[in-house]
Amino acid sequence: MRRRSISAATTLAVVFSSAALAVGSAGQAAADSAKILPVKSVGDLVVDGAHRRVYVSDPASGKIVVTDYSGAVQATVTGLPGVTGLALSADSAQVYAAVKDSDRIVSVETRTYTRTADYALAGADAPADLEVVDGRIWFGYGSDLGSLDLSGAEPVVRLDQEAGAGFWTGPLHLAADPAVPGVLVAGAAGTLAVYDVTADGAVPRVKGSMDTAVKQLDLTPDGTQVITSWDGSGSGYGLPAYSTTDLTEVASYPIAAYPNAVAVGPDGSIAGGSFSWYDPDVHIHRPGDPRPVREYEFPNTGDSSGGDTLVDGALAWAPDASRVFAVSVNSHGTYTLRALTDPTKELPTLTVSAPAKAERAKKLTVTGKLTSRTRIPAGTALQVTRTDLDSPNGKALPAVTTKADGTFSFTDTPPAGGKVTYKVSFAGDATHAAASGSDAVEVSRKATTLTVNNNGKLYAYGKDVTFTAHLGTTYKNRTVSIYADPFGSDKPKKLLKTAKVNSSGNLSATVDMTRDTTVTAVFAGDARYAPKTVKSTAYAKAKISTTVAKHYKTGKIGNTTYYYFRKSTDPVFTTTMNYYEGRKQRFQLQVYHQGAWYDSGTEYFALATNGKSVVSLDAPGESGIRARMRSSYINGSSGDSVNSTTHGSWKYMTFTS
């Protein structure tokens, strides 16, 4: 068959999903895809291989969502309250849907996604699961079986197709396969039956009670086995296979976690699903082989401790067996359609090991191993690619072949230094998926010289200073970047220039020295010379000026200009300084006595946001006194460290009567 029905219990959001899990040994193929579905629940899914479409029913929203194979939504069919089971017609022209809340089956045309027919099922309460057998639509309703025959001029609905009432103890799950005409399988809690379908109805071939609940089931393409889920009763979890002749168990496919889905592919491969937070979610088996050939583990897209989980029964094969489609749900109730590619192929492991370090232009050896569950033949060709600074897009090297144990080795002489990555790829074959591995080696490079001038120099505030970086010998790269990083947290590091150095190896950039500044020159390196970074820190004075007020004149005493004040006048000094948050000026006062200047005191005064600080001195009250003052910025003591210590000029004053 090409789809599996899903328990109505899954319409409730599964709230147990969680943190991402480590990918299992089989891993995931690079071509796997995942797209969020715009649904609130999932009832069933069916794959239309002729049009490469996936149909997903959403009972809670009463709609069917149609996607392409990548999960991109192509159409939405609405107005289907409680829609659950889906089935595809043999010619892929119609998708049939069981609409539980209105007791009917509707038909959707697969080219236009429009509803083409509506069939009332009078007396059939809540039809859920659907199967198409020889053109007739079979449906389970409650614990009974019905059919819808569309072959005549008018549709014919037949109910109570199960002879022997009371055999079923729960809702029916149905299974069929287009490759097996005339056969229908049904299962419910603890019961299983195989029917031969004729024009007169469904004739039981074999019926029996099981040791475990049948949660999902499917029929093999040769019609000899029915595969069911196993709920953990008795010997453990798994997917037991029963003979369609006498229901004896003929095979079993163990699963570590809770089985909740099963789908058989067109080639007989079995996809088993399990409700699992911490183990693989989808398990692919070759017919008769209890060991999975491939396993897929869903990542965590929610916020719990385990991974996303598989929705009950949400597995379906593409008719060409190229993909298995699965629907997962996370802890937020978000549903995702996942296309799992190459499911029947083993996923090999390809390891590559290169030396941690190597010398440029010297031969090195790379080793590795290609392993898989079934041995890959000796002599298998592997493609080798080297990626380095000279070949950033990769350069193909001669192919290497495997030995009998899967190991391989090759030598190479790296022409470029720096990080060199060797990637080895296996293209895959009929039974193995593609695989690749890589490893990187740090290849030595020569050291070049790089300098930048002006380190330690002190400049006046606002001076334009030219910084010159000098680059020594390199291979191909002659580009240098120059950055300026002014002191202070309010101004970020800034790129001044990136360019090739001139013929003398120089590149210059100008800095407006309003603060102490670290200038950095960076050479990124090339294939033969290592990267290098050098720094130069130059210093800038603060900008300081002071004006004097309330004097009555100026005049010279000797060669020095003095401001004259009356002995009862308070001198006022306004200092202006380049502002920085929290900055203070240091006010220093000295008095002249017997031919020498003596400190009278110092005090720090905060600057306003306009950079000004106004200080008034008390009048001395007597004449003949000579004094001087100056304002200074003291690195560290003035509240910050973005400029170098700077003293303003002395202002001289004398007091008269």
Tally of individual helices: 0
Query: What average pLDDT do the residues reach?
Result: 91
Number of strands: 56
CATH class of the largest domain: Mainly Beta
Task: Tell me, briefly, the overall form.
Answer: elongated
Integer count of domains: 4
SSE topology:
Elements: E1 3-5, E2 33-36, E3 44-48, E4 53-58, E5 63-68, E6 73-77, E7 83-88, E8 94-99, E9 104-109, E10 115-120, E11 127-133, E12 136-141, E13 144-149, E14 156-158, E15 173-175, E16 183-188, E17 191-198, E18 201-209, E19 217-219, E20 225-228, E21 230-231, E22 237-243, E23 249-254, E24 258-264, E25 270-275, E26 282-285, E27 294-296, E28 309-317, E29 323-329, E30 335-341, E31 349-353, E32 357-358, E33 364-371, E34 381-387, E35 395-401, E36 407-412, E37 418-426, E38 435-443, E39 450-452, E40 458-459, E41 463-471, E42 479-486, E43 494-500, E44 506-513, E45 517-523, E46 532-540, E47 544-549, E48 553-557, E49 560-566, E50 572-577, E51 584-593, E52 596-606, E53 612-616, E54 626-633, E55 646-647, E56 651-656
Explain what the structure shows.
The chain has 657 residues and is mainly β. Helices cover 0% and strands 51% of the residues. The protein is built from no helices and 56 strands. The strands form 13 sheets. Strands 48, 49, 51, 52, 54, 55 and 56 form a seven-stranded mixed sheet that branches. Strands 1-3-4-5-6 form a five-stranded antiparallel sheet, with no helix packed on it. The model is unreliable at 1-30 (pLDDT under 50). Residues 1-22 form the signal peptide.
